Amino acid sequence: MSSVPHHSSPVDTDQDLVPMYSPEFAADPHRAYREMRRRYGAVAPVELAPGVPATLVIGYRNAVRILNDPEHFPADPRTWQQTISAECPVLPILEWRPNALRSAGAEHARYRQVIADSINGVDLHALHATVEGIAVPLIDAFRETGAADLISQYAFPLAFDAINAMLGCPPEIGQRVASATAAIFEGSDAAQGNGMLSEALGELITRKRAEPGDDITTRLLQHPTKLDESELIHQLVILYGAGIEPQQNLIANTLLLMLTDTRFAGDVLGGSLSTRDAIDEVLFTDPPLANFCVSYPRHPILLDGLWLPAHEPVVISMSACNNDPAISAGQLTGNRSHLAWSAGPHACPARSAAYLIAQDTIDQLLDALPDMQLAVPAAELVWRPGPFHRALTALPVVFPSSPPQHVS
Predict the structure, then answer these.
(1) Please, which residues bridge with residue 148 across strands?
(2) 187 falls within a domain
(3) Per-residue pLDDT for 11 more than 60?
(4) Number of domains in the chain
(5) Cβ–Cβ under 8 Å, residues 157 and 192
(6) CB within 8 Å of 116: residues ≥ 6 apart
(7) What mean pLDDT is reported for the chain?
(8) 167: nearest Cα among 237, 92, 230
(9) Given a cut of 50, is residue 1 above it in pLDDT?
(10) Which pairs with CB-CB distance under 8 Å and at least 24 residues apart come from 232-237?
């Protein structure tokens, strides 16, 4: 049985809401999750942005129930967003788009099939060579200097080039997509970012119609579902959104673990735990999208003794749920029961490619620079504010300088 609730609704007064956009939350979200659990139990009242209330699910079993019940917890935000200002910084991430992430029912099934079929066509063996071909020149560009920021100089450009390669996107279009995606995720100029994104992806679609290839964009275009122009753009939006920011964060957060945890840092090449072990641990403890999988109940619904309001965001905290004391066994090595890839009908269809890219990216770096160390104490690293991601602003490292591996 669940404990007696502290209140009948997760949102009683504004002062109860935990601001998930603050620098304090970003600096130590795990402390915030523990405090929420102590005060509220498995469901907590939060603010995603000033004046934007939501319910954060921090109990694992409640999360699994929600993720597998799209009938009561649909992902379509259209009723909710009618009440939200166009200037709201989280609106570009949460607003309705004709894609699998923001739709429900038959619409979701249609888009999901197109995306899954297009991703499943990726040759994972060829992707190994693609990642190596991207990683080696990136490493060569800084290995002589003896210092680097592993986010701006490695994790971001590698994730960016890898998704461009899978989508068959040329660099000049991809650069505009990256700038637009950053504006949307950061909320800095989201409206302009949306416009830039649609324009650049429209050009990619036009090019792929004229010059089809063995890539995801071409498979989207040729799929028997026959998506229209707007639908095609929004499938690419979700692919870029998932392929750059979360991939970059997964790489960086795993590198941070491997550089600071003695199980890895003692001997990164000969240790008892592998890169894959480190990735799985990060997916438990600091997943790149810490809070996401948003749904919007059509009617008020009772969850764990609390009434959730209709049409208000219900956000799954994958990070908090993974570490729920009610289910945590404490053993993370080889354990893949985490929710970092979501679950149910909205589970990530690209996990195999994401695992491969992260593992190969990290292994290439550690093979090249095995004596790499953090340039500052880990406690001085800064985490980017935002309700959804778990993302460092920078990951500075130092290492003995060495000549480039491949001289062109």
Answers:
(1) 397
(2) no
(3) no
(4) 1
(5) no
(6) 349
(7) 89
(8) 237
(9) no
(10) 232/201, 232/205, 233/198, 233/201, 233/202, 233/205, 234/97, 234/98, 234/99, 235/99, 235/111, 235/114, 235/115, 235/118, 236/167, 236/201, 236/204, 236/205, 237/97, 237/99, 237/197, 237/201
CATH number for position 73: 1.10.630.10
Print the SS3 string covering 358-372.
HHHHHHHHHHHCCCC
Residue 59 lies in a domain: yes
User: Over 50: is that where the pLDDT of 349 sits?
Assistant: yes
Tell me the per-residue pLDDT of 56-113, one tens digit each, with 9 for 90 and over: 999 999 999 999 999 999 999 999 999 999 889 899 889 999 999 999 999 999 999 9
Token duo for residue 234: 């929004």
Inside any domain, residue 229: no
Question: CB-based contacts of 34: which residues, under 8 Å, 6+ apart?
Answer: none
**Token pair belonging to 71:** 């009938």
User: For position 328, what pLDDT does the model report?
Assistant: 67
Report d(CA 34, CA 146) in Å as an integer: 39
Structural domain of residue 23, as residue ranges?
Answer: 14-101+122-169+244-398
Q: 51-68 b/e with 16+ CB inside 10 Å = b?
A: ebbbbbbbbbebbbbbbe
Residue 317 in any domain: the answer is: yes
Partner residues linked to 289 by β-bridges: 389
Q: Radius of gyration (Cα) for the chain, nearest Å?
A: 21
Neighbouring CB atoms inside 10 A of 38's CB total: 8
Do 294 and 77 touch, CB atoms closer than 8 A?
yes
